[in-house]
Design goal:
By secondary structure, the protein is mainly α. Helix content is about 65%, strand content about 0%.
C-alpha cells in the first residue's frame, strides 16, 4: 500500500504534486516522490531540501495556490 502510494505520487504532474503537497495528501517519507513529480517542471532547479522547505513554508502561510507556488519556486532557480 505504501509503495503503491509512493509510485502514484511520482507519476503526478508538477501541478498535481503541488496541490497534493499543499493539501497534505501524502504520507511520511513520500517527499522524494513529490519532489520527483515537481521536478518534471524543467524550471525547477532548487535542491531537494530547498523544495521541501519551500512547500513547508507555503503550508504554514496558507497563501500559495499550486500554480503560484510552482512559479515562485521556479523563479528561485
Amino acid at each position: 500500500m505504501v509503495n503503491e502510494r509512493f509510485q502514484h505520487l511520482r507519476q503526478l504532474t508538477p501541478i498535481e504534486a503541488a496541490k497534493a503537497w499543499l493539501s497534505g495528501d501524502f504520507g511520511i517519507y513520500d517527499e522524494p516522490a513529490m519532489i520527483e513529480a515537481i521536478r518534471k517542471d524543467p524550471r525547477i532547479k532548487g535542491s531537494d531540501q530547498e523544495i521541501t522547505e519551500f512547500f513547508f513554508r507555503a503550508l504554514a502561510e496558507e497563501a500559495c495556490d499550486p500554480q503560484r507556488c510552482l512559479d515562485e519556486l521556479a523563479s528561485r532557480g
